Amino acid sequence: MIKSNPFTDKDRAAIWDMLVTRDIKAYCEADWSQVAEDFVEDEFYAINANKSENPAAWTFAFSSLADYQAEWLRQAKIAQDTAYSEPLEAAVHAATTLNEITIENGRAIARKQFFGSIQRADGGVDELLWQSLYYLKHTDAGWKICGFTGYLPYSA
Questions:
Q1: Phi/psi of residue 92, nearest 5 degrees
Q2: DSSP-assigned beta bridge partners for residue 9
Q3: Residue 55 and which of 4, 29, 141, 143 are 20 to 30 A apart at CA?
Q4: 51: which residues sit within 8 A by CB, 6+ positions away?
Q5: Backbone angles phi, psi at 119, to 5 degrees
Q6: For 125-148, how does the pLDDT look when each residue is reduced to its tens digit (9 = 90+)?
Q7: CA 90/CA 138 separation, integer angstroms
Q8: Residues 6 or more apart whose Cβ sits within 8 Å of residue 19
């Protein structure tokens, strides 16, 4: 089932729509054009926490949006080429939670969690078990992603 936006205030609702509704749909369709305008390109960078609680194990994942786009598309195409025994978009929604968005002075941090699995047609399972912190900025065009720390260990 596709989740509904739980937020009623316009800022958090816009951030949730960007990070959940639009991102999941674009990923499942391997269509970067749906999310291309969601970033502040000249400020973007990302850290990979490598599912470690120890910051010494974290690595600089992407120093540019172009690098992130290439990896995002690579992973999205793998998902598209995988035969699942359940609808991919609904399964990703079921595994995704975004309940925490802190906003202060035109900046925001959003905690997006992944906790679940997707059944493959070959009998295997793709496990989703991590969380990401997204760093956002309010611009004249609305909320945009400046960067994130991804693949943090999952915690409730």
A1: -65, -40
A2: none
A3: 143
A4: 130, 151, 152, 153
A5: -80, 125
A6: 999 999 999 999 999 999 999 999
A7: 29
A8: 98, 110, 112, 134, 145
For the CA atoms of 74, 76, 82, 84, the dihedral, rounded to the nearest 10 degrees, stands at 160
Q: How far apart are CA 151 and CA 131, in angstroms?
A: 6
Two tokens, residue 51: 């599912």
Contact 60, 45 (CB under 8 A): yes
Amino acid (1-letter code) at residue 110 = A
Residues, the chain: 156
Q: If DSSP states are collapsed to H, E and C, what string results for the chain?
A: CCCCCCCCCHHHHHHHHHHHHHHHHHHHHCCHHHCHHHECHHHCEEEECCCCCCHHHCEEEECCHHHHHHHHHHHHHHHHHCCECCCHHHHHHHHEEEEEEEEECCEEEEEEEEEEEEEECCCCEEEEEEEEEEEEEEECCEEEEEEEEEEECCCC
Global pTM?
0.95
Here the tokens at position 60 are: 């600089």
Pair type for strands 45-48 and 142-152? parallel
